[in-house]
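On clarity, I found the account of how folds are encoded harder to follow than it need be. Since the whole study asks how a given chain folds, the encoding of that fold should be made plain. For illustration, here is how one protein appears when written out as sequence plus C-alpha cells:

:::
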Amino acid sequence: MTVIRPEIRHEAFEVLGAGRSGPWLVTCDHATNRVPDWLGGTLGIAAEDMARHIAYDVGARGLAIALGAALDSPVICSDFSRLVIDPNRGEDDPTLVMKLYDGTIIPANRHVGAAEAEERLHRLYRPYHDAYAQIAEGRAILAIHSFTPCLKGRAPRPWHIGVLHSPEDERLSLAVISGLQAVPEWCVGDNEPYSGHLPGDAIDRHALQSGRHNTLIELRNDLIATEADQTEWAQRLAPILSAALNQVVRAG
C-alpha cells in the first residue's frame, strides 16, 4: 500500500495539499494524457488526437488544483492517459481499455490481452485508487471532469457546466445544481451531457458504496482552456459547492 505524504508524485498519480483541513477530496480521474515509457510513450495515434478529450479531460487538472486551493482541501490527479487505462471504470468494464474513441482507432490497444491489461491495472489503476481511498477517509468527494463542446458528427452541446449523479445518492448533487441554476448566465446540465454513473466507477467505488457525500462536475473544456480561466471558475464554484455541502450536512 502506498503511504501518502502531504505532497507526492507517483507513476500513477499526484497528490497536492494532503494536509489541508477542508472537508473535500477533489479528484481528477482524467488529468493528463501521459503514456508511460514502459508502453513506449505512445499509443500510436497522432499528437493532435492525444491533445483531444479522448486522451484526457482538457483543463480539468488545473481546475481541480485551483478548487483544492479555494476549498482548502486535498487534490488527487491521475498521471496517465485514460486511453492507457480508464480509472473511472470498473475493472470488469468493457471500456476499461478503449480501442476506438470518438472516431479514432487506438492502435496500441487493438490487441491488448489479459496480461497487458493486468500490468496496467497493477502499475497505474490500482495505485491511483489505493491513494484515493486513503485520502477520501472522512471527506466528501468532488470529482472534476471536462467535456468537449461537440463530438464528431453530433450537435453542439449547449451546457456550460453539468452535474452528474446517481439515483443511489443525489443529495449533494441536487443541492449543487440548485446553486448553479441561480446564476442566470450559466446553462446547467442535470446529468448532462451524459447521465449518471457506471457500476464500479470512481464515485461508485469511493462514495456510493461507503455513503460519502459526493458530486461530479463537468465543465465544457473551451471554458477552462487557460490557467486564468481555471482559477476564475474555481473562484465562482467554490462558494456554491461549500454552501451545498453545508446544506446537506445540516440536513443529515
